[in-house]
Amino acid sequence: MAVRIAVLAAFLALALASSSFAQSPAPAAAPSGPPNVTAVLEKGGQYTTFIRLMKSTQQDTQLNSQLNNSFGGNGYTVFAPTDNAFNSLKPGTLNSLTQQQQVSLVQGHILPQYYTFDSFETASNPVRTQASGKDGPFTLNITANTQNQLNVSSGVVVCTVNQQLSSPKPLAVYSVDKVLLPLEYFGAKAPAAAPAAAKAPKKGGSSDAASGPAGSDDSNSDSSGAVSARAVGWSVAGLAAVLGYLL
């Protein structure tokens, strides 16, 4: 009997302990800080050139600062070209750009709004980027294809969104397989205006120019000289006749 009571008491104690454990609150999750675009790209492992370009233009610092204050705002979306995307550029492409143009190149990969993969399907094209120029903001056209992939066009190149590197708001980062060269810098240049055609000389113009002003041709000069010579001759003859009469 005593053994049975002891077993029952032990069972009740175990039951109470289990109930207390089950009702204890789970430890609170540590609050996560604002996302860091550089950390996201470094974790991706194949965005060294883009990271270097962001650092040299100070766009990493600017974007991270904006992310610190965007939890209640629209957020940001970044299209990150892979190292292979940069390697496929024509040699000297980046070096041909000025410092300001390199800033615009990076900003042309950043959208001042947070987009999930699905929300791109309802985005209104063209989509504005962080970059702008004398003609206004640089824009992208983003469309979904039948394979449930996103195609992004800068007007010069079209690339495919391969994967999402970061999704929690306020930062979405997508990997792309080409550098989004802006139309403003790499678009086809307008053809130069053709030089004005030289006017054709008037028919017979060369002979007119050689002949000189009207009324000054040789025939008119000859006839005038002859008339003058005859007038002088008559005057001399008349004077001689008068003198002979007087004498």
UniProtKB/TrEMBL annotation:
Primary residence: membrane
Name of the molecule in the record: FAS1 domain-containing protein
Annotated signal sequence range: 1-17
Record domain FAS1: where: 34-180
Gene Ontology biological process: plant-type secondary cell wall biogenesis
InterPro entries: FAS1_dom_sf, FAS1_domain, FLA_A
Location in or out of the cell: Cell membrane
Classification via SUPFAM superfamilies: FAS1 domain (SSF82153)
Region: Disordered, residue numbers: 197-224
Gene3D superfamilies assigned to the protein according to its UniProt record, in alphabetical order: FAS1 domain
Superkingdom, taxonomy of origin: Eukaryota
Membrane topology field: Lipid-anchor; GPI-anchor
Any one GO CC term of the record: plasma membrane
Function: May be a cell surface adhesion protein.
Swiss-Prot/TrEMBL keywords: Cell membrane, Glycoprotein, GPI-anchor, Lipoprotein, Membrane, Proteoglycan, Signal
Family: Belongs to the fasciclin-like AGP family.
